[in-house]
Design goal:
With 354 residues, the protein is of the alpha/beta class. The chain contains eleven helices and 18 strands. The protein has a seven-stranded mixed beta sheet with strand order 10-9-6-11-16-13-17, sandwiched between helices. Strands 3-4-5 form a three-stranded mixed beta sheet, with no helix packed on it. A hairpin with a 5-residue loop joins strand 1 and strand 2. It starts with 6 loop residues before the first helix and ends with a helix. The relative contact order is 0.12.
Length: 354
């Protein structure tokens, strides 16, 4: 890639390669800079537009350690590569020849045969799905068909594709339909355990019932259709030493009127039909065991927003992680219809393949 290419081009390159990195080179193929998935996410949080050139993104990097791209000569040994990655906490390194031209990229996962992500997934599937009635009168929302299989199976498939094989499903409403379909998960290539809520415990309460919480938990609502890069999410979480990471999605509202600003009776500004843009909670989280310990086990309803407030009150690190991949919250009938259309038209599948 070159300095004049757009950030959106870098997103497509990163999504299409296992090393999850884009290289910016000059006309002689000499390395100018590297763009990682984390760089892209930080630029989104900084409101940098995807149509901006890569030169803007590279100039916005604030960490002096990475001002000059980390690279290695092609003759470097595997142990030296691993040591270099560990030193700089990176997962990919460009390899150059004697003339400093890029000839290859080595990713951390290429150096190891075991690629299972060190996380345990918790899928929250206990809700009533009241806004989707009558579809959910006799079927739990996560078991509604999306394409040729239930929504929850789409989620399980995405977890398996992302090398996450240890899954806990929290259930409540019509729970037997979920347990009967998935069993222990072996037929779906994962290991599944269940936590049944005797009564609704909110968006976080049931997580406190998950056994053996020694590892990082990936928590995802059972009505989310997404191909979010979970490995990139985990790396971002670890880079920031976060107790809790919240996946967020940009949401834009078109105001159909001229918006007037004033001081007393005097108009100071008027904007015709402006857009308001902000980040919203996408219903996907990464949480450390110490964060989960803050959830009370008294059987009362407890929401994820309450856990976030507790962590912030105690000075813990809570970060947000912007999603630029496909994401859809299937909460209403229009959302369910869109999910069916996206599956049928191949929109979701195409993005997974990338």
């Amino acid at each position: 890639m070159h300095l004049g290419d757009q950030i959106s081009d870098a997103i497509r390159v990163i999504e299409a390669n296992s090393a999850k990195i884009a290289l910016v080179v000059d006309e002689c193929n000499r390395l100018i800079g590297t763009i990682t998935d984390g760089d892209i996410r930080r630029s989104i949080l900084g409101n940098v537009k995807e149509t901006e050139p890569l030169s803007v993104l590279l100039s916005s990097k604030t960490n002096p350690t990475y001002k000059t791209p980390i690279k290695a000569h092609s003759s470097i040994s595997e142990p030296e590569l691993i040591a270099l990655m560990q030193k700089y906490k990176i997962t990919s390194i460009p390899l150059i020849d004697d003339d400093a031209r890029v000839i290859d990229i080595v990713g951390f996962q290429q150096l190891f045969s075991e690629n299972q992500l060190p996380v345990r997934a918790v899928v929250m599937a206990g809700g009533f799905g009241t806004r989707l009635r009558p579809l959910t009168n006799s079927t739990p929302k996560p078991m509604l068909p999306v394409g040729e299989k239930p929504l929850l199976e789409q989620i399980i498939t995405q977890l398996k594709t992302s090398n996450i094989y240890d899954v806990v499903i929290t259930t409540h409403y019509l729970s037997n339909q979920i347990t009967d379909h998935f069993g222990d998960g072996q037929n779906h290539g994962v290991n599944i355990q269940y936590v049944k809520e005797d009564q609704p415990l909110g968006t976080a309460g049931a997580v406190s019932l998950v056994p053996d919480r020694q590892s990082t938990l990936l928590i995802i609502n059972g009505d989310i259709l997404t191909n979010l890069d979970f490995s990139a999410f985990l790396q971002f979480h670890k880079e920031h030493n976060a107790k809790l990471s919240v996946a967020v999605r940009r949401y834009t509202i078109d105001i159909p009127y001229g918006v007037v600003k004033s001081k007393d009776s005097h108009i100071t500004e008027i904007k015709e039909k402006p857009q308001i843009s902000f980040f919203v909670n996408a219903g996907i989280y990464l949480a450390e065991p110490s964060a989960i310990e803050l959830i009370p086990q008294n059987g009362d309803k407890f929401d994820m927003t309450q856990l976030i407030d507790l962590l912030l009150e105690t000075g813990e690190t809570v970060i947000n992680f912007p999603i630029h991949e496909y994401w859809l919250d299937i909460g209403k009938h229009d959302d369910y219809l869109k999910a069916q259309q996206d599956i049928e038209q191949g929109i979701f599948a195409k993005k997974v393949e990338n």
